[in-house]
Amino acid sequence: MAQSATTGTASGNTLEVNAVAAAVNSVNAFNGYNFNIGDYVRTGDTMLSVANAGAFGTAANGVDWAAINVNNAQKLGRLSDVQGLSV
Questions:
Q1: pLDDT, tens only, 16-53
Q2: Mind listing the pLDDT tens digit for each residue in 50-65?
Q3: How far apart are CA 65 and CA 58, in angstroms?
Q4: How far does the chain reach from its first CA to its final CA, in angstroms?
Q5: Residues 6+ apart with CB under 8 A from 43
Q6: How far is residue 53's CA from residue 50's CA, in Å, rounded to a whole number?
Q7: What are the contacts of 25-30 at 24+ separation with CB within 8 A?
């Protein structure tokens, strides 16, 4: 992960989610988000809970929805609650 000397913001980093029921305070310092669906994930499972859900807003410092990737989504048959996801 690179850090800007002037702004203190991170760049070039990706959050890899390989679990269910993970919980964090914030995720807005990442440039990419990979949700990797493994055999342990079932339809209806929550992979990641974010306490600062405001980070998913449309403000300049929010999460870029285009940077979210769901890998192996076909294992679930269907997904919900992922904005803009096309499987």
A1: 999 999 998 888 778 889 999 988 888 788 999 888 76
A2: 887 666 655 555 677 7
A3: 9
A4: 29
A5: 76, 77, 78
A6: 6
A7: 25/50, 25/51, 25/52, 26/50, 26/51, 26/52, 26/55, 27/55, 27/63, 28/52, 28/55, 28/61, 28/62, 28/63, 30/63, 30/67
